[in-house]
Specification:
Blueprint: E1 2-10, E2 13-21, E3 27-31, E4 37-43, E5 49-51, E6 72-73, E7 79-80, E8 84-87, E9 90-93, E10 102-103, E11 116-121, E12 125-134, E13 145-154, E14 158-167, E15 171-172, E16 176-177, E17 180-181, E18 195-198, E19 200-206, E20 212-218, E21 230-231, H1 241-245, E22 251-256, E23 264-268, E24 273-279, E25 283-287, E26 309-314, E27 329-330, E28 335-346
Antiparallel strand pairs: 1-2, 2-3, 3-4, 4-5, 6-16, 7-10, 8-9, 11-12, 12-13, 13-14, 14-28, 15-27, 17-26, 18-21, 18-23, 19-20, 19-22, 22-25, 23-24, 24-28, 25-26
The structure holds alpha-D-quinovopyranose.
Length: 347
Amino acid sequence: MNAITTPLTVEGQSWNEYTLSNDNGMSVSFLDYGGIITSIITPDKHGNYENVVLGFDNYKDYLNNSNYFGALIGRVSGRIANSTFSLNGKTYELPANEGKHHLHGGPVGLHGVIWQVELIETATSTGAVLYHTSLDGDAGYPGTVKFKVSYTLTNDNEFTIDYEAISDQDTILSLTNHSYFNLTGNLKDTVLNHDLKIDASQYVELDHELIPTGRLVPVADTVFDFTKGRKIADGVGSNDPQNKIAGDGYDHFFIFNHKEDVNVELSEETSGRKLTVKTNQPAMVLYTGNSVDDSCTLKERQSVKHLGVCLETQSTPASLNYPGFPSILLAKHETYRHTTTFKFSTL
Ligand code: G6D
């Protein structure tokens, strides 16, 4: 187990890239800028170690990361409709960065700050703790919030992200990671032929601006039913209006049943790679890279649509406007504590 730090100078800014490596040869690399995960190297069924996430070839491109490749997202993941919300009788106006809506924490969200990183090694893991303090009024949000996010890699090829935060005022908070996974290895193909299983019986309907309508839709008898597993391709070219609204694929919030051992299983037959996700979050956005075009130069190739799949465990800002959705409220001095483990193995 080890962790190495590589100082970088990117457009005059001083960044660091950290690489956590376990004894099996798996590694996870990330930046202090935005907590961005830049690569995850895992073996295929033949023992070939290859990268399984989308990352830029040139670090400077992370300064204009409209796909949020690898990024730590917050203060609130997802879309806050009309960039406004009310809390304790007060209305807050946030910066609109996608039409009239507020997406992924706004133009200067947590994906665009430099986190303070402390490397930590234990007998069974190597990792880092990322610290940041967001002041009251940052991006329009109430409360000074202290963040502590841990990245931990074990010799079981498990990579865990633990999110902790505490605010000095009532506020809203919903953090996630926006890595695009591709289990083919070094982005050999899109993720359309990946097999996906999600322990979720309902998803949230979207309107044409990708804002939740407040309607929970049963997945049964639709291409949104991943309970028994299906190809990601089933949602591409599908006649379901929700797949079309999402830009020909999925971009939807699935409410976990939390009835299975794991919440999500992603696998790819040719490489034999498998990724299981276990989280205490109530739900997840499944996003199949529908807006990714050919404009990004990644380490291995030029980007294309559907080149990666995001498994963004989180709660939903829809809870600000509709009852019954997993809440994103964080009370003053309450500790926000969520964890998601990504376990890599082979079929
Ligand atoms: C698109 O709608 C999707 C979002 O879910 C995603 O996070 C973003 O691209 C990167 O806006």
